[in-house]
Write a sequence for this structure.
């Protein structure tokens, strides 16, 4: 069984943390092997001096939906102040000097899901930068990449397209743990930071989450299972359109569609593309909230038949390509603000450049679209080697 960084701290293997005045960035996933939360464990441990709490997107307790601002509060269990790192504007995404005042170090313990769009690692990077400026130490209690650390897919981020769904030029599926990204970020951003990554024991890069022996705790309200995490590096691209990505159903990101889509037509268009490790099933669904809430949607559910062969990013791009091709009169890219950005289309932020959007709009075939990210993918695979902490 995999032992997380938190377990090693609780076992007394990280004495440099003891007696420091600590701030903690966490969410519901920060549990030990008995599913006890890090806040409760730290608050009850006489070696640990927990002084402040920080909540990322979705909040410390994980109740808020995506892109919903979270307010500061006090934690009802401990009475400690809870500072929000996801407010009404982009200036609220990093801890301020006032929030960090009186602390010696900040601890980060959140389960990531292995996709560049998932904002928790960027909360970590912004907090690292703030701690470097304040002269505080930073500790990452590492956890597995639930979709494995061996596969990388997608390109880099072009100049002008960095955002809270990609602050550093990592691919859409990066194959790294939070601790590894922390090391990459410290060097890439040239941070003068006292960084400590408390590594896991027992984790190997080829593992999927089912191999770890750890219980799955939902990292966010629409990430119910490791299956969701596996498809997310591709199917999150649906957020860059006016299609429903399945929020408001029990299988978000595995289900997608819209009122104008005929599921049989879409499934028939996707099957001949011979995308590895996936099959398509037509369906009708009724989202209970967010896009097209209360309106029957035609669409498909993707069923991953071979997780190791499956290419989530190529699959997501293929889904956009097929919908645009077969329903051109109704397909629309999202134009509304996305993760605090108003001057770039959401799909460009997700893809890291306009190349996919412009290619689909211009009639490029799927092979041409895939060629746009191959060089960036290869470059990252080579450059990430020095930051990897696990075999």
């Amino acid at each position: 069984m995999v032992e997380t960084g938190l377990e090693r701290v609780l076992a007394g293997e990280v004495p440099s943390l003891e007696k420091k005045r600590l701030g903690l960035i966490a969410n519901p996933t920060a549990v030990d092997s008995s599913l006890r939360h890090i806040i409760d464990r730290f608050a009850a441990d006489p070696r640990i001096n927990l002084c402040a709490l920080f909540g990322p997107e979705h909040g410390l307790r994980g109740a808020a939906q995506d892109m919903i601002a979270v307010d500061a509060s006090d934690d009802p269990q401990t009475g400690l102040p809870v500072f929000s790192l996801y407010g009404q504007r982009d200036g609220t995404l990093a801890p301020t000097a006032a929030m960090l005042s009186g602390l010696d170090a900040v601890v980060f313990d959140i389960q990531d899901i292995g996709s560049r769009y998932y904002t928790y690692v960027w909360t970590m990077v912004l907090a690292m930068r703030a701690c470097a400026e304040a002269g505080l130490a930073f500790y990452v209690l590492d956890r597995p990449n639930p979709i494995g650390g061996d596969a990388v897919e997608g390109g880099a981020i072009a100049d002008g397209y960095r955002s809270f769904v990609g602050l550093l030029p990592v691919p859409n599926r990066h194959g790294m743990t939070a601790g590894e990204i922390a090391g990459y970020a410290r060097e890439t951003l040239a941070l003068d930071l006292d960084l400590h990554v408390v590594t896991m024991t027992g984790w190997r890069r080829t593992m999927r989450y089912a191999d770890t022996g750890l219980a799955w705790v939902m990292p966010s309200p629409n990430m119910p299972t490791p299956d969701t995490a596996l498809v997310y590096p591709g199917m999150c691209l649906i957020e860059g359109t006016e299609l429903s990505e399945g929020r408001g159903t029990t299988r978000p990101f595995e289900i997608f569609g819209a009122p104008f889509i005929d599921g049989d037509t879409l499934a028939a268009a996707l099957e001949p593309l011979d995308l590895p490790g996936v099959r398509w099933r037509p369906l009708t669904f009724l989202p209970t909230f967010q896009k097209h809430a209360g309106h029957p949607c035609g669409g498909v559910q993707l069923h991953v038949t071979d997780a190791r062969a499956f290419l989530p990013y190529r699959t997501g791009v293929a889904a956009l390509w097929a919908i645009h091709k077969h329903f051109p009169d109704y397909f629309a890219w999202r134009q509304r603000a996305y993760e605090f950005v108003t001057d770039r289309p959401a799909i460009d932020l997700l893809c890291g450049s306009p190349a996919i959007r412009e290619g689909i709009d211009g009639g490029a075939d799927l092979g041409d679209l895939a060629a746009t990210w191959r060089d960036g993918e290869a470059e990252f695979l080579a450059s990430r080697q020095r930051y990897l902490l696990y075999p």
The chain has a mean pLDDT of 96. The longest strand covers residues 278-285. The chain has eleven helices and ten strands. The CA atoms of residues 145 and 177 lie 5 Å apart.
